[in-house]
Design goal:
Blueprint: E1 22-29, H1 33-45, E2 48-55, H2 58-67, E3 72-76, H3 84-94, E4 100-104, H4 109-118, E5 122-125, H5 132-168, E6 173-178, E7 183-187, H6 192-195, H7 199-203, H8 215-229, E8 235-243, E9 250-262, E10 269-279, H9 281-349, H10 356-384, H11 396-402, H12 404-411
Parallel strand pairs: 1-2, 1-3, 3-4, 4-5
Antiparallel strand pairs: 6-7, 6-10, 8-9, 9-10
Helix pairs in contact: 2-3, 9-10, 9-12
């Protein structure tokens, strides 16, 4: 690396108490040490604590620019092996945003214009350096602002790249429409999954999304969309069917959107509409399967209930028949006794010399026995539900006592029934 001409110079703080010294790293391109001191004096008077380096050739300039970061370059126009425009070209090539001020003893207007067009921030005459401090201060402020803007733009670009990367992985479609022009200004790069059309085709208005809406849903969806885009409603949430442009496949989608408004009061207007479209075909299929399952399940439950009712009824009849079977012994014994009374009474009634009062008694015995047999038969039929029951008011205690004979015959002689 070629040696740097000149040396770093430190000056004491300004005597002006109102001026706060500011650090300034200045690269001075000058072949005359006297002019160097003049520039430094003007900068010091303007309140700068200058840390500087003087160079007088292109090689030394390039070395200085590589070696460290500078706040500003102040260059003479006339130099031994180059001119100010050559210096400016080197600075713009190596540090494009570094402020550059051209200083000369006799620069012409045409040269000054060429320098400004080439990227110089300003030019001054050595005979009048009163503006040097103000120009340096202005360019430092502009440079700091430009650096801050570049940093913010870089952050914004990085944030946009991250957001774009995230959105590119989403299956849902996010969109933004400018109002009132209704121009689609943003669309995530994934509409092919639903519509079978690229985002570029939508953005270039080569296709109309409404053409892909199912004919049965098109009129309804078009009316809702027009109301939303006209600002008549701030949001919408709707489900409808679309048909893929390439595969012809029917899909269910959910579309949700919201208007973004600006202004206050009567001047408040919707300026854009943003939303998201999601494929809900699978959800709809599951819902349909669930509905069908519920319908068949209800039918199956009804069938099972009916089968169970029939089974329970058959079980009750079987239990009754079993109980009747258990009653058979006692009932047969009672019928045998009743038949014995009837047979005996009929035998005695055949006697020709039977007294009338005895004949009447035997007939009463036969009638009572027949009544008892009929009563027993009625009870058995009612128990087995083979005889229709007629509701009537009765004495429960008397009815229980009248059933004692049947119950006693059923349980046998070992069990004593005591009704109170």
């Amino acid at each position: 690396m070629p040696p740097l001409h000149g040396r770093d110079v430190e000056y004491p703080p300004s005597r002006d108490a109102d001026v706060v010294a500011r650090r300034l790293r200045a690269l001075i391109v000058e072949d005359n040490p006297v002019d160097e001191l003049l520039v430094l004096a003007k900068l010091r008077a303007a309140g700068f604590a200058v840390e500087h380096c003087r160079v007088d050739s292109v090689a030394a300039l390039e070395a200085a620019l590589r070696e460290r970061h500078w706040d500003i370059v102040i260059s003479d126009y006339v130099l031994p092996d180059c001119d100010g425009l050559d210096v400016l070209a080197v600075v713009r090539r190596m540090q494009p945003d570094l402020p550059f001020i051209l200083v000369s003893g006799g620069i012409g207007e045409a040269v000054a214009v060429d320098a400004m067009r080439a990227g110089a921030q300003d030019y001054l005459l050595k005979q009048n350096l009163l503006r040097l401090g103000a120009v340096v201060d202005r360019e430092l402020t502009k440079s700091a602002t430009a650096r801050a803007l570049r940093a913010e733009r870089q952050k914004l670009r990085e944030s946009e790249l991250r957001l774009h990367s995230i959105l590119a992985t989403l299956e849902d479609i996010i969109w933004s429409i400018e109002l009132p022009s209704q121009k689609l200004v943003y669309l995530t790069p994934s509409p092919e999954t639903i519509y079978g059309v690229s985002a570029e085709a939508f953005l270039r208005s080569e296709v109309d999304w409404l053409d892909m809406v199912h004919p049965d849903d098109r009129e309804r969806i078009d009316a809702l969309a027009q109301k939303a885009l006209a600002g008549e409603q701030e949001e919408f949430d709707v489900e409808y069917r679309v048909i893929g442009l390439q595969d012809g496949q029917l899909r269910w989608i959910s579309a949700k959107g919201r208007a973004i408004s600006e202004g206050e009061g009567e001047r408040r207007r919707a300026v854009r509409f943003v939303g998201v479209v999601a494929d809900i075909t699978e959800r709809k299929r599951y819902e349909q399967e669930l509905r069908e399952l519920n319908e068949t399940l209800e039918q199956r439950v009804q069938q099972e209930v009916a089968v169970r009712a029939r089974t329970e009824e058959a079980l009750r009849q079987s239990q009754k028949l079993e109980a009747i079977g258990q009653l058979t012994g006692g009932v047969a014994h009672d019928f045998n006794n009743l038949l014995t009374v009837i047979r005996s009474s009929l035998y005695l009634l055949r006697q020709h010399d039977l007294a009338p009062e005895r004949r009447a008694r035997y007939l009463d015995a036969i009638r009572e026995t027949v009544d008892r047999a009929a009563k027993l038969t009625s009870q058995l039929l009612a128990f087995a539900r083979r005889q229709p029951l007629q509701p009537e008011v009765f004495d429960a205690g008397e009815r229980v006592r009248s059933s004692l004979d049947l119950l006693q015959a059923t349980v046998g002689s070992r069990v004593v029934l005591d009704v109170q």
